[in-house]
Amino acid sequence: MFGLVDCNNFFVSCERVFNPVLMGSPVIVLSNNDGCAVALSNEAKALGLKRGDPYYKISEMCKANGVYVYSGNHRLYGDMSKRVMAVLAENTKCGIEVSSIDEAFFSADDLRTESLHDFGRMIVRTILRNTGIPTSVGFGSTRTLAKVAGRFAKKYPGYKCCCVIDTDEKRKKALSMTDVGDVWGIGRRLGRKMRSIGVNSALDFATMSQDAVRRFNIAVERTWRELNGESCIVAHAVAENSHRQIQCTRSFGESISDIETLGEAVVSFVSSAARRLREQHSCAGSITVFIRTNHLNEAIDQYSGQATEYLDEACSDTPTLANLAVRALQKAYRKGFYYKKAGVVLTDIVPDTELQRSLFTDAADREKRARLMTIIDNINRSQMMKDSVHVAGYRGVDNLSDKSMPTRLYSTRMDNIIEVNTDI
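User: That's the sequence. What structure does it adopt?
Assistant: Structure tokens below.
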């Protein structure tokens, strides 16, 4: 059996942990540059607001209904995610597989079927007590069925935050009540295609013939097999996905035309991406930089460019990657355009234990740079020196965005800590 822990309305829940006034009130969290709603409380959903709604279209409705609106505070959410995962890891014996910022799988093979409900609810209570984040737990014989169970645990209060699919009867009933587009690995676009051929529910999909399923692709067939109780997503599949590529992109609050400012943005993106490389003990063999104008603004000339640079030896060294990124930017840049979005993509990623060394690199210099990156990462992770050491040209990813309704970094900056009024 597999278990899945899923945080409820995670971004909203993070804001509520440090601001109890938000409890029971409609709350939405906005995307980069306050563009659209990316997270909503149940109270906001009850008003008819939906994920993806452009904020400029719903701003008056939010004001009229007393909706609390916040810019995305992803540093806070990332730190709270680490706390949730740490609590989960402490309470499971076989380790966890983090699949996203608010979800993680764990093995439940050592638990008796009759104790799954009690264990799942214990996990929910422990995470809520230790972090303040409400969660739901789903159990199934495969990871995909655990996702289905987790959806029921979150949606229906009668499950008391824990749903177990442990019989074929429960499996068929759950799949019959699940839209095919809500299945993990299917999604909205493929769901529309399936509905056009009469496949509406997850059960309709699961009862298709294997030959019919193979007309799609191998990933769809894998999902089909998982829904039929055959575990075929390997334990490290989710982790391996992170090794394929790492990207960091942003839309700017204001359009940028000069290459110097674009260069500062690109260096900031590289710093973030390289740090993620080192956290997963990997190295990148190539880096791509892309820049784009605002395609929604028909009044300006449009341009989209990109360029890729390759390394003789894969690395995770921020200065090396930053120099290559600036070189790629110079190739992609065209003067006279106003750029609204830019980003970097690290590819050809390999574990740092499987590097193909180059004869033309200095081994001593390589080790020196690795030690330097370790020291910088340790400094930047410390609470007192959080993100204080950077390469030259760094501007700061958060400084590139237009966030008009930010919240504080309650959990990672001492000067943002909650103030308690003891005079009341």
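DSSP finds 15 helices and 13 strands in the chain.
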